Amino acid sequence: MGKGKVFTAFFLGLLIFLARTEIPSASGPINITADRLEADRRLHLINYIGNVIDKKEDLTILADRMEFYFDEKMEEVIKIIALGNVRIHSKGRNATAERAEYYDREAKVILTGNPKAWQEDDLVTGSRMTLFLKEDRSIVEGGEKERVNAVIYPKRKPPQVPEGPGMAPSLPSPLMSPEKRGR
Fold first, then answer.
1. Which CATH number is 20's domain given?
2. What does the DSSP 8-state code read for residue 168?
3. Residue 162 domain flag
4. Which residues contact 112 (CB under 8 A, 6 or more apart)?
5. Is 102 exposed, middle or buried (0-12, 13-18, 19+ CB in 10 A)?
6. If both were cysteines, with which of 1, 61, 153, 176 could 180 make a disulfide (CB 3.0 to 4.6 Å apart)?
């Protein structure tokens, strides 16, 4: 195959990849940067290798390598595997692992290799985390050497004291000046 045909096939595969990996409910482009890109239509595979950064709106995924597996026509992503130093950031939620697998049809993510997930100060660790995105649920499993560990800080709001006609009066704060407390 001539260089022109190889480049055209590669370019078409890349365009199909970019068009098909977009999340249907979200708009905007996907921006993937890496040190190297390898595409193999025979294997239905596109590899991003070295310092991979995948950004789409509020979601950023960083990894040493990302593998995108497609259907036979290279039109639909079947699964994505991120390998090595995987870091995921989205709207204040974060996760790290050595491996992340995303299955498009099931909208399922599996994190392995010392996975951790946190939001603010809350943290969950285990040996395997499975996230079911459509169902908004997850399963964290322990392993032979590690149990599931969760550190959760309860979020408490100060109690509200109702005011107004027929309601209980608000109590003066000891931090108020004596004049405002009625003294």
1. 2.60.450.10
2. P
3. no
4. 97, 98, 99, 127, 128, 129
5. buried
6. 176
Integer angstrom CA distances of residue 118 from 28, 95, 122: 26, 6, 5
Q: What is the pLDDT along the chain (183 residues), one digit of tens a residue?
A: 443 333 333 333 333 333 333 333 445 687 999 999 999 999 999 999 999 999 988 889 999 999 999 999 888 889 999 999 999 998 888 999 999 999 888 888 999 999 999 988 899 999 999 988 888 888 999 999 889 999 988 877 767 766 656 555 554 545 544 555 454
* Cα–Cα distance, 100 to 45 (Å, whole number): 17
Residue type (1 letter), 162: P
DSSP letter at 158? Answer: P
What range defines the domain where residue 21 resides?
Answer: 3-151
What residue type is assigned to position 98 of the chain? E
| Cα dihedral 103→104→106→111 (10° resolution) | 30
Q: Max alpha carbon distance in the chain (Å)?
A: 94
Q: Provide the domain count of the chain.
A: 1
- Separation of first and last alpha carbons in the chain: 94
Residue 175 forms part of a structural domain: no
- What count of Cα atoms within 13 Å lies in the side-chain half-sphere of residue 6? 6
